[in-house]
Write a structure and sequence with these properties.
Helix content is 39%, strand content 15%. The protein is α/β, with parallel strands linked by helices.
Length: 469
């Protein structure tokens, strides 16, 4: 559908009435919600949803793409053609966005919808222009293919894009999975580790205790959706490892034994025998399982264990230098490249552009706030300790033959090859082990959806494994 054939009035903010009820508290809620992937305004006709969104958009300093939907938009090709056009009308940085996606939408039948959406998502991520896309009157959409395609976009939403929907009814999207818990939905606590360091945690749910331990470039809050998916059956504990959020600093004499002591104290406090860890957190549980008989079952997701030089370490000296020089965006990129993490488009982008985009994301986060997450600038320095873990645990593979706990090894089919090498090696040495590959997922699988995760399949694997006698 060529742009001249599109109704430009569908991209225009509805005019505000001269007599307008001032709702500053709701406008502030909308502003704060931009740190999340999706904002939904759901209410009956006449409640002022469109007026509220228009008032917020008119005073917003970042780009806003507006699309007023109608009954004729119940066609996936028409719907996404209009979305692309709305993004182009939002400002000069996006004036040519979506040309590749649009070409795929116009391709011969059947249209390559998923490929078009991947193209659009990758292009928006590369441009890194903070934009809010508002879809007004979404209740008129009844076509399931549109709901499914919108869910695909939400599952892979770039951090620079925020989606706002107004609707008279809740749309058929998995809102429970997308909804991040409010502080009222969990409690926080803390304990003192062996060396006197305070370790904080979040707690939610009811049932047998489970501890979920995060990796290096993250914190406990990255697993809040995974915890919610388990909370109907388990009491879930989300500790922040040292140097993050609720917990105290690492200290100068840091070794993995400090993490083991932290988790030993938490297991003692909570009575937990079931544990899950990803990346550096998985390494910590493997080491802890050698000495802590309190661990009965452990789910280990892709620990970065050195096996036959499977993990490239050439980047580490550069990372340390960039941290010392205060170049934290550069250091974060170097750390991600060392671990072969991040979107695949990173490999095709020049280094200067990656640093520019990362710096812009950091500045945007500083302006908007990071919600429950630890800011990226702080996380960039935390990678140092996980790299230290990797080096310290080098050559320890054979020691894991003595682990008595039952172990479930998890890996994503889209994760880096060196992590698959690690899981294959662990499967051969662990005495009581099961290994499962999660199709279509990567190293971030257990994270919240707004951080690129898909925690549903991980939660299902944990439920099945922990429920076995």
């Amino acid at each position: 559908m060529p742009e001249p054939d599109l109704l430009v009035t569908k991209f225009t903010l509805p005019p505000l009435r001269s007599v307008l009820l001032h709702r500053s508290h709701l406008l502030e809620v909308l502003e704060q919600s931009r740190s999340l992937p999706l904002t939904l305004l759901s209410a009956g006709a006449g409640f002022g949803k469109t007026t509220l969104l228009s008032a917020w958009a008119s005073r917003n300093t970042d780009q806003v793409a507006w699309l007023s939907l109608d009954e004729q938009d119940n066609d996936p090709i028409r719907f996404w053609t209009y979305v692309i056009a709305a993004l182009r009308h939002s400002g000069p940085r996006l004036s040519a966005v979506g040309e590749g996606a649009e070409a795929l939408l116009r391709s011969q039948q059947p249209p390559l919808l998923t490929s078009a959406l991947i193209s659009l998502i990758n292009e928006l991520a590369a441009l890194a222009q903070d934009t809010t896309l508002i879809l007004d009157d979404y209740h008129v959409i009844r076509e399931q293919a549109i709901h499914d395609s919108l869910q695909f976009v939400l599952d892979h939403l770039p951090t620079c894009l925020h989606l706002s929907l107004s609707s008279r009814v809740d749309p058929p999207l998995p809102l429970a999975r997308l909804r991040l818990p409010t502080p009222e939905s969990y409690t926080t606590g803390s304990f003192t580790s062996k060396d006197g360091t305070t370790i904080g945690y979040r707690q939610l749910g009811q049932g047998p205790a489970v501890v979920l331990l995060h990796g290096g470039a993250s914190s406990g809050y990255y697993h809040i959706q995974l915890a919610e998916l388990l909370a109907d059956t388990f009491t879930v504990y989300l500790p922040d490892r040292r140097g993050r959020g609720l917990s105290g600093p690492y200290g100068e004499d840091y070794r993995i034994q400090k993490d083991v002591e932290d988790m030993d104290a938490l297991l003692t406090k909570t009575g937990a025998h079931l544990v899950f860890g990803v990346s550096g957190g998985a390494l910590i549980w493997l080491q802890a399982a050698l000495t802590l008989a309190t661990i009965h079952k452990a789910v280990i997701l892709e620990p970065p264990l050195l096996v036959n030089d499977s993990l490239p370490l050439a980047y580490l000296a550069r990372y340390e230098r960039e941290v010392r020089e205060g170049k934290l965006a550069a250091a974060l990129i170097t750390g991600m490249k060392a671990a072969q993490m991040g979107p695949r488009i990173m490999n095709a982008m020049p280094r200067w552009l990656l640093e520019l985009i990362t710096n812009m994301a950091m500045k945007s986060e500083e302006k908007k706030g990071s919600g429950g997450y630890v800011p990226m600038r702080e996380l960039a320095t935390m990678l140092h300790y996980d790299f230290q873990l990797v080096v310290e645990m080098s050559g320890k593979l054979e020691s894991f033959r003595t682990i008595g706990a039952e172990v479930l090894l998890l890996g994503g089919s889209r994760s880096p090859a060196y992590l698959k090498v690690v899981l294959d090696a662990l499967e051969k040495v662990l005495p009581r082990v099961t290994c499962i590959e999660l199709p279509g997922l990567d190293h971030a699988a257990s994270w919240n959806t707004d951080r690129g995760g898909q925690p549903g399949p991980v939660a299902q694997a944990l439920r099945c494994f922990f429920a076995e006698p």
